Amino acid sequence: MPNVLSIRHVAFEDLGILEDIFTARGWSYRYHEAGTQDWATLNPLADDLVVVLGGAIAVYDTHLYPFITDELKFLEQRLAARKPTLGICLGAQMIAQALGARVYPAAVKEVGWSPLQLKVPGHTSPCKWLSAEHAFMFHWNGDTFVLPDNAVLLASTGSYPHQVFIWNDVVLAFQCLPEVRTRDLENWFIGHAVEIATTPGVNARPLGTDTLKYGPALEKYGRLCFEEWLTSLKIG
Length: 236
What we know:
The protein is an alpha/beta fold and 236 residues long. The protein has a single domain, classed as Class I glutamine amidotransferase (GATase) domain (Rossmann fold, 3-Layer(aba) Sandwich), CATH 3.40.50. 31% of the residues lie in helices and 24% in strands. It contains 6 helices and 10 strands, in the order βαββαβαββββββααα. The strands form 2 sheets. The chain has an 8-stranded mixed β-sheet, sandwiched between helices. Strand 8 (151-156) and strand 9 form a beta hairpin. The protein is globular and about 45 Å long. The mean pLDDT is 97.
């Protein structure tokens, strides 16, 4: 049975639909709470797949959150060994940094629902299921990154040109959030209430309305995207 390690930074930002996918495949998964559990207990090469999830901190906040240094070392070792790794939101930024790319504050925040703009390689990748003709994407971004060396850009948005990339076929990174469940996002809106209240143009009620409108399609096509990529890894 394949093993999945999920690195979690915020309790309510979990694997979402990936939990259902792993369960259906018979894969075991567990969470490592990034800020409170001991990184010394983890072997970067032990698990068949590592999923690095999102959070409200920044990769460059190591002076505030020292565990980030341990997390980056863990990812550097795993990526050097070309082991399957999936990054989402902060997880994508962690992967970019671990691959030597710069992560920095974006000019504007991107919070809410809008479609992805697929690049040419995106149309022949698992990301094709996330095109605008299928689904709107959920976004919650304040930082962005330089595209790592040897990475292939799959999708962009107007404000964030580096939304999805793949690296050496075994690493997939989403700045956006294709894993979210419609029913869970109200927890996000409660947990991030201060950020919502202080971000111009963002309001909890329109976010909730848009989630009911766009969430089910993203769950459907997000599953197809993840299933295709996981199958390509040939680990289970």
